[in-house]
Write a structure and sequence with these properties.
The protein has 638 residues and is an alpha/beta fold. Strand 2 and strand 3 (63-64) form a beta hairpin. The chain folds into 4 domains: 3-159, Mannitol-specific EII, Chain A (3-Layer(aba) Sandwich), CATH 3.40.930.10; 174-276, Rossmann fold (3-Layer(aba) Sandwich); 299-459, no CATH class; 463-635, no CATH class. The longest helix has 41 residues, at 419-459. It contains 24 helices and 11 strands. The strands form 2 sheets. Strands 1, 2, 3, 4, 5 and 6 form a 6-stranded mixed β-sheet that branches. A 5-stranded mixed β-sheet has the order 9-8-7-10-11. Helix 3 (111-123) packs across helix 6, helix 16 crosses helix 17 and helix 18 (504-526) packs across helix 21 (562-582). It comes from Atopostipes suicloacalis DSM 15692. The chain crosses the membrane at residues 313-335, 347-368, 388-411, 423-443, 505-527, 539-559, 565-584, 605-625. Its main location: membrane.
């Protein structure tokens, strides 16, 4: 298969009509849908949006390469578009983009397709290729340029095979590098090529390991690492790092590999990079590795570690909560002494008993890798036994993680023949001993006191303060609809609920989380001229999702029209959350939506009314604010 089989003439926009980043992305996705390469606009467009959110694909020098790999793609394809006037694409160099390549890769794309896409990524680093494309103004001339460049690339591969082993008798400096990006399609290979080209200019030998969709290529060997004069890791995802333990490593985003290749090489050779501290015996198992920062403390690393704990805790919350809800529902029919009620209640309680240990265990593992798992879970259990609650669990997780890093660094110079003993014996015993002592005698009692004080404060909140807190929690549920702000509100309410059994704030977040999808569904019925036929059909499912407390149903609509959808949803959710507290409602279960509310909620009529009022408010704001479909099409927003 040739590159021209993927960059087809019917997929070219010469020129594109769009003048904004959103418009050019929409226009290119529509082209994929029109030609049958993609069968679901919303699914693929969301994949593109998610990729842009993680890191802009505006590469600089007037080039943008948006890409996604998902189930909506039926035929691996590339849309090529030109916009001579330029589009502000949040490019890495701040300059407008004029040439656009949108890659649509099948979810099960084979090695041939992925190799072709990797070749395209490398070609975009060739200035002659870019100049030729800029001059080409017809689909035929573009394909001719691509075909000629592909032939030249294959010739170069044949005539100059890559260096696969470390040099043994050369005076040239030797640098090794790893490149990887979240999707493994574009930036991975562009960073590889940029580093190789710059190394050639500087007279430096280099070997680059790529961790892309094709898998790991040109894997670095122990000999490479031992002989390297400098090490560069330019990545946007987790890669094995333990093999570099004790070495100076330049760790940067993959975009720096493309745009700051000379700086990275010079820094690596100058010996100015920090020493990476990790476990050298864990070099091939990324699940055992410490977090990407190598234990370096930063707000981003703290957030990532916290989210690791929360995301792993949520299945226990949801499954255990629903089982408890079922038990309370059955209690009304069979009585509290029935084996049915007792069994369901014990099952749900068993899942709930793991919440804080799981939270702490996975926070610790995110920081210190698998060696931290014992001390993390045990620290969480000690937090429970000390009545330190949710806050104590958070402290236990971070404490266990950083204690593990300390122990690993302290033992890194042990003889290699004792490495196995270190992993299976010393790490778990020492980390458990230190974490356990600190939790049992120091942090457990401290945070038990803090937890009790906080709960006492919440109990003394006046009605006005309680309503305000309910409004804040409800609004937070709608801000990012399943993202970190949403999870923060949910985690706070879960903490109160697990510590006290008080479901007041659980009611606020449940009401707030139900309103966004319900409002979108209702708006699609009442304001039909504001939604396309496809949007109206998909919006109806949000009635079910909203009633079930699945806020994520609103995400596709928020992605397409973030300002209107998010603001209208947040206002309605804040009103609903506040009303739930004003009317003294409560939900004694962490999930289930309307089904839990009707079966178990306190002051159920007021709960339903809070949901209804919030939904109507959001619906009215969104319905009147949103433009009719004809105006949206005229302005290019759909």
């Amino acid at each position: 298969m040739k590159m021209t089989d993927i960059i087809r003439q019917e997929l070219m926009l010469l020129p594109a009509q769009a003048t904004t980043k959103k418009e050019i992305l929409d226009e290119m996705v529509h082209k994929l849908v029109e030609t049958g390469a993609v069968d679901d606009f919303d699914t693929f467009r969301k994949g593109i949006a998610d990729r842009e959110e993680s890191m802009s694909t505006g590469l600089g020098d007037g080039i943008a390469m948006p890409h996604a790999k998902n189930t909506a793609v039926k035929k691996t394809s590339v849309v090529f578009a030109k916009q001579p006037a330029g589009v502000d694409f949040d490019s890495l160099d701040g300059q407008p983009a004029k040439l656009f390549f949108m890659i649509a890769a099948k979810d099960d794309a084979n090695e041939t397709h992925l190799a072709i896409l990797a070749n395209l990524s490398k070609l975009l680093m060739n200035k002659d290729f870019i100049e030729a494309l800029t001059a080409a103004n017809t689909p035929e001339s573009v394909q001719a340029v691509v075909s000629l460049a592909e032939a030249s690339l294959e010739t170069e591969k044949t005539e100059a095979p890559e260096e696969e082993v470390a040099p043994t008798d050369s005076d040239e400096p030797y640098v090794i590098a790893v490149t990887a990006c979240p999707t493994g399609i574009a930036h991975t290979y562009m960073a590889e090529d940029a580093l190789k080209n710059k190394a050639k200019e500087l007279g430096v030998k280099i070997k680059v390991e790529t961790d892309g969709s094709e898998g790991v290529k040109h894997r670095l060997t122990k000999e490479d690492i031992d002989q390297a004069d400098g090490i560069i890791v330019a990545v946007g995802k987790k890669v094995p790092m333990g093999r570099f333990s004790g070495k100076r490593v330049v760790e940067r985003p993959v975009a720096d590999g493309i745009n700051k290749s000379e700086e990275l090489i010079q820094t690596a050779l100058a010996g100015e990079a920090p020493v990476y501290h990790g476990s050298s015996d864990e070099e091939t198992d990324t699940a055992d590795e410490p977090s990407e920062s190598g234990g370096a403390f930063s707000l981003q690393s703290v957030y990532n570690d916290l989210m690791s704990g929360v995301s792993n805790m949520l299945p226990f919350v949801i499954a255990g909560g629903i089982m408890l809800a079922l038990s309370f529902l059955m209690e009304g029919f069979v009585g509290s002494d029935s084996p049915i009620f007792v069994g369901l209640n014990e099952i749900g309680s068993a899942a709930f008993s793991f919440l804080i240990p799981v939270l702490a265990g996975y926070i610790a593992t995110s920081i210190g890798g698998k060696p931290a798992i014992v001390s993390g879970f045990a620290g969480g259990a000690l937090a429970v036994s000390a009545d330190a609650g949710f806050l104590g669990g958070l402290v236990a997780g971070f404490l266990a993680g950083y204690v593990t890093l300390f122990v690993m660094r302290a033992l890194r110079k042990m003889p290699k023949n004792l490495a196995g003993l270190r992993t299976i014996l010393l790490y778990p015993i020492l980390t458990l001993f230190i974490t356990g002592l600190l939790m049992y005698y120091l942090f457990g009692p401290i945070f038990a006191s803090i937890n009790i004080a906080m709960l006492n404060f919440l109990e003394t909140l006046g009605t006005g303060n309680q309503v305000l807190l309910g409004a804040i929690l409800g609004g937070m549920m709608a801000i990012d609809m399943g993202g970190p702000v949403n999870k923060a509100a949910y985690a706070f309410s879960i903490g109160i609920f697990t510590d006290t059994g008080d479901g007041r704030f659980m009611a606020a977040v449940m009401v707030g989380g139900m309103i966004p999808p319900l409002a979108i569904a209702l708006a699609s019925v009442l304001f039909k001229d504001k939604f396309t036929e496809v949007q109206k059909q998909s919006a109806l499912t949000n009635f079910i999702l909203g009633l079930s407390f699945i806020t994520e149903g609103a995400i596709p609509f928020a992605a397409a029209d973030p300002l209107r959808v998010i603001i209208s949803s947040a206002i309605g959710s804040a009103v609903g959350g506040g009303l739930s507290q004003l009317w003294l409602t409560s939900v004694p279960a962490p999930h289930g939506g309307i089904f839990t509310m009707l079966a178990l909620g306190d002051n159920r009529l007021m709960l339903m009314l809070a949901v209804l009022i919030g939904t109507v408010i959001s619906t009215i704001i969104l319905g009147f604010w949103k433009k009719p479909v004809e105006e949206q099409m005229a302005s290019g927003t759909i």
